[in-house]
Amino acid sequence: MTGLIWANLWARPVRSLLSVLAVALQVFLLLFLMGMTEGILSEYSQRIGGVGADLLVQHPGASVFLAFSRAVLPEDLKPTLANVPGVTVVAPVLAVVNSNSITTIFGIDFDSYNRLGSGFLFHQGGPFAGPYDVIVDNVKAADKGLKVGDAVELLNRQFRVAGIVEHGRGARFFIPLRTAQELLEVDTVSMFWVTVSGDPHQVQERFARLLPRHRITLMDEYMSLMVSTSLPEVRPFSRAIILVGLVITFLVVLLTMYTVVLERTREIGILKALGASRWDIVAMVVREALAIAVVGTLVGVGASYGVRALMMHLRPTLTILITADWLLWGIGLAVVACTLGAIYPAFRAAAADPVAALAYE
Fold it and tell me: Where are the alpha helices (DSSP H) in the chain?
């Protein structure tokens, strides 16, 4: 029966190829798009963790994506936070997205921000020397071919590269806080990064009493959110990708197997006349659909890893993370969609009257 299944697939190679490509497309879309999502979140999480803070203070309703948080916190809240017992450093930050490259920029007070964690590790250059100086991380500098003294356009203004630092300090670009406020025409900040001595939970409780409506997040809690399944902003996207892929594969396999059954009406009649049961016919059609699923999955997984390698070579700042969970989702969805698509044609074939089928032309 296995040989018959593969012979059936080779009998119509173009149609079989299109069915395989439909399954591969579902698997590729799921793995590649969710791989980009997971990769971006993972890389972003590593950069945020590298800041070295213990707590993050944001306004009520702030987004976990820091650059999309409105700058509404008064900067003069800094001394109030700094006077809370256990607090060692309070660093105000104004986060903004550069519209030209969709890159996060942090407007920082260099002295306080540099005291968070281990501080900046300079590869070249040094701190800001003027209001329109920028510090760039080494990954972005390598991607853009930047070196100290070069000009770079940010927020529709020209900045001079003052220093290049080790990546993993929150953003790719850092400019003086006052400059960022001037360009955005605000006197507020997006967040405060805080380091503490002792138990961060105790300081979190003190902040919560002091600022009951604000979002006070431990960095461990924040880092745990950086997976696609934990973020409400990402869930609709992932569900849409799953649904679209499932529907595409289901419809293609349904049409393919239905056509196959119509073309092989006479052959099915012969099998039934030779003693094949209804379930033998059903199993044959479903197994043929599963063969398409297996080949399509292999093609889709291979294409995902191939395109991933190419994209990461062309764009070093882009991280694509294909996880075991999404691999299982891709395989499972391909199998489910192909099985569902084959059920109706399989039972239609099994219900065929052998006498009528043998007379079919």
Answer: 2-11, 13-49, 78-82, 110-114, 138-144, 177-184, 200-210, 219-224, 235-263, 265-273, 278-314, 324-350, 354-358
- Integer Cα distance of 41 and 47 in angstroms: 10
Q: What is the pTM assigned to this prediction? A: 0.72
Hunting for tokens 């999502």 — which residue is that? 37
State how far the Cα of 163 lies from the Cα of 125, in Å rounded to an integer. 4
SS (H, E, C) 200-264: HHHHHHHHHHHCCCCEEEEHHHHHHCCCHHHCCCCHHHHHHHHHHHHHHHHHHHHHHHHHHHHHC
Same domain, 69 and 193: yes
Instruction: Show the domain range for 338.
Output: 2-43+234-358
pLDDT in tens, 82-116: 999 999 999 999 988 877 667 889 999 999 999 99
For the chain, the C-alpha Rg in angstroms (whole number) is 29
Contact 292, 23 (CB under 8 A): yes
Total domains present in the chain: 2
Tokens, residue 194: 């805080």
Residue 42: count of CB within 10 angstroms of its CB: 17
Tens of pLDDT along 231-244? 666 667 777 777 88
The SS3 of residue 76 is helix
112 and 209: one domain?
Answer: yes
Same domain, 105 and 195: yes
